[in-house]
Amino acid sequence: MSASDNPTTTGLTTESAVLAGELFGDGVGTQAGPPATPAEGTGVAPGAHSHGGPAPTGSPAERFTSTDPDAFGVPTGREETWRFTPMKRIKPLLDGAESDAHLTWTTDLPEGVELTSVEAGDPLLKGLPEPVDRLAALARQRSGGAAVVRVAKEAQLDRPVTLGLAGTGSDEVVWGQLVVEVGAFAKATVVLDHTGLARYAGGVTVLVGDGAQVSLVSVQDWAPGAVHGGQYDAVVGRDATFKQVVVTLGGDLVRLVSNVQYAGPGGSAELFGVYFSDETQHQEHRLWVDHAVPNCTSNVLYKGALQGEGARTVWIGDVRIRPAATGTETYELNRNLVLTDGARADSVPNLEIETGEIVGAGHASATGRFDDEQLFYLCSRGIDAETARRLVVRGFFTDVVQHIGIDALQDRLMATIDDRLGALPALDDQPVEVA
Amino acid sequence: MSVLEIRDLHVSVGEGDDAKEILRGVDLTVRSGETHAIMGPNGSGKSTLAYSIAGHPKYTITGGTVTLDGEDVLAMSVDERARAGLFLAMQYPVEVPGVSVSNFLRTAATAIKGEAPKLRTWVKDVKSEMELLEMDPAFAERNVNEGFSGGEKKRHEILQMRLLKPGIAILDETDSGLDVDALRIVSEGVNRSREEGEIGVLLITHYTRILRYIKPDFVHVFVNGKVVEEGGPELAEKLENEGYAAYVKGSQEVASA
Q1: In chain B, what is the straight-line distance between the N-terminal and C-terminal CA atoms, in Å?
Q2: Integer Cα distance of A230 and A283 in angstroms
Q3: What angle do CA A144, A86, A243 make, to 5 degrees?
Q4: Are the beta carbons of A291 and A320 closer than 8 angstroms?
Q5: Do B77 and A392 touch (CB under 8 A)?
Q6: A350-387 per-position pLDDT tens digit
Q7: Are A14 and A361 in contact (CB under 8 A)?
Q8: What's this model's pTM, rounded to 2 decimal places?
């Protein structure tokens, strides 16, 4: 599903009825897309997983997790989890040199929110979902503790919690771990706003209490040259709602792994993402939604645009529905808009269904140029092709950005995107494909 | 005063060996103040005619001319045709994610008029037209056609026609999929434009139902890529009673559109 030379469009929508009927087998996960068979050296040990689900099923996609970086070995770039990542450019992080470097924090904490920290070895950290790759394990270990944002139970915040995290330009790697703990029935939005120049490996864990409603917005508006790797975990409580909006615009390399698990039935998770890769930028988003308890929903929508030579994006969307997860409803969608030649988008949705007793499961992925019909529609109303194209691309982003729900931040991000779109070559140089 | 003249129009889809001729010499003249109904069976090329006039890139013009007030429409880009006064209400309006209806309408009106409409009168115009089409005001903040019901899409098309005030409007199966209420509301919208006098309407339909609300001056029967019979409103009544069988018989090859 690359779009470097021949933009392709794939529609991999899968209906649950078909999957459940044809593909359900005892203990065997079913997949769409390339198999996620671990490469040599990744050390997948059956039974070693640490997710809160039922006993291991022996499915090939069982995921290895550990807090020990060495348990993963040193990645070569051939492993499934690293095969898309430019290893040279992420090497400074994977080298794992210890450091005390920090980002500069600017915080806005509404009433009802406490910002504190815990030392390594704190019971809170022991209970977190474990790292899924060496980089995440290094971040957990090297950060030597964690910053903790606590939202009291039943708190209703009057404004978002904002953590401005700015790189200082140092070559030293910044290791970080953040835990957002939201009490039962509280309602909170937390914004992580990454800017500046940094080499940053940061873990983020959101513990969503029962019945709580939590939005986590992570903006990667890094300066050119920044390298950012991180694992985001959400543990969604019973009947709780979790929304994550990831916006990746800046930096040289950004590689984020977002995992969701459910601590009780009735949970709901929405994962939104938008990314815009310019010349030579590598932006990689890997998602893993693990349905192991009944009656939970997940909805994934990631949209990305690419322009310029060497612009590169990777989206991996893994959704797993374990045998116990009856009543699951899930859908994931990835769209990539390739604005110029020389860019490449990879999109790999994986859906594994191990029970037929679900409400629905599907996924779709498409990578291509402009939607010709959208352009025709706008032009047929008198709008010139250049303006129409801008409207379509802007709308493509707005579609996701509007889920943030914070006007000032949305306006800022759209202004950044508008600036970047200004660099588009004229339409005459970029013939629109006719379907 | 506008005149749309279509002369011996030939149109095909596909390329090379796959090319297939769909329009086989269409002749038609539509003037301001006139309403023409084009009626024909499925696959006769009615929609191809509509999209070809609007300039959809899927269709290749292989012969003939289309002029608007003497200007060569076929030489114009899609947006130029709209700015020259042509409007196509589509059968299947396209979703444009992330673009709000209000932003879209204002952008289109600015393009058509050549300058941004005055905000106060514009907001008032949009609001009153939406009321007349019985559209909820919240509609303006939704994304273009996204999640619209069939009826909402058609009302949205007619809303655009009302606001952009074209010289010639082509309505491509605007009646399809509408319940009786929606059909009446949409038809009344078209009739308001007709009563204002300066619009020519080309009404493309499979059924006679909409002609009870929008009375045509001329009816053209369209079969196998061309007009095979022309007449007044009485021709629609004949079609209502007898169907297209008499025209389709003997025409072995029915083009698909």
Answers
A1: 31
A2: 12
A3: 60
A4: yes
A5: no
A6: 999 999 999 999 999 999 887 889 999 999 999 999 88
A7: yes
A8: 0.76
